[in-house]
Amino acid sequence: MENDPPPAEVVTKDGVTYRIRRLTEVSQILPRLEKDRAFCAYAICQLEPERFPHTRWYVAEGEGGEALVMHATGSLRGSLYGFGADLFCVGHAQALDAIVSLHPGPRYVSRLWAQVEHGPILKRHYFVLRGSPLLFLQFSPNPPKDGLGDSP
């Protein structure tokens, strides 16, 4: 049937078997992103109704851990998202390797969101021109009195 999810694929990496599935429902994806909302903020925005149809999401699950990958196309005219394809990765590096070995996404990616430990895996699958760390700002309802941290 048209609405049936695609069948799971199986990949073995370093003796660990991963089950890889394409996720097609926001309800399957959001709980995985909410584990680290600060890092996943961009990906959470891609779940909005006007953006979600332009994304593909994959999860790898196995004894070695879990990873989530999003491929997004820049199809929203007049916005930051119109400048090419994006790749977002979160989770266990070996599970990520299992996903991108089957579903590498577009040949050219403009922006890449990944964790530091994903670097060696991604460099095996992609030509990474340059990388720069993301800096996160965290807001608190209790501003620091000394400028260095949360006030009690």
Could you describe the 3D structure shown?
- This protein has 152 residues and is α+β, with helices and mostly antiparallel strands.
- 22% of the residues lie in helices and 25% in strands.
- It is built from four helices and six strands; from the N terminus they run E-E-H-H-E-E-E-H-E-H.
- The protein has helices at residues 26-33, 37-45, 93-102, 119-125, and strands at 9-13, 16-23, 55-62, 65-72, 86-91, 111-113.
- Strands 1-2-3-4-5-6 form a six-stranded mixed beta sheet.
| CA-based shape | globular
Structural class: alpha+beta
Give the distance, in angstroms, between the N- and C-terminal Cα atoms. 56 Å
Q: Low-confidence segments, ≥5 residues, pLDDT <50?
A: none
Number of strands: 6
Radius of gyration: 17 Å
Q: What percent of the residues sit in helical stretches (DSSP H or I)?
A: 10-25%
| Mean pLDDT score | 82
SSE string, helix = H, strand = E?
Answer: EEHHEEEHEH
Our count of helices gives 4
Strand order of the largest sheet: 1-2-3-4-5-6
Which range does the strand content fall in?
A: 25-35%
Largest sheet: 6 strands, mixed
Sequence-ordered SSE layout with sheet pairings:
Layout: E1 9-13, E2 16-23, H1 26-33, H2 37-45, E3 55-62, E4 65-72, E5 86-91, H3 93-102, E6 111-113, H4 119-125
Parallel strand pairs: 5-6
Antiparallel strand pairs: 1-2, 2-3, 3-4, 4-5
Can you summarize this structure?
This protein has 152 residues and is an alpha+beta fold. It is built from 4 helices and 6 strands, in the order E-E-H-H-E-E-E-H-E-H. The protein has a 6-stranded mixed beta sheet with strand order 1-2-3-4-5-6.
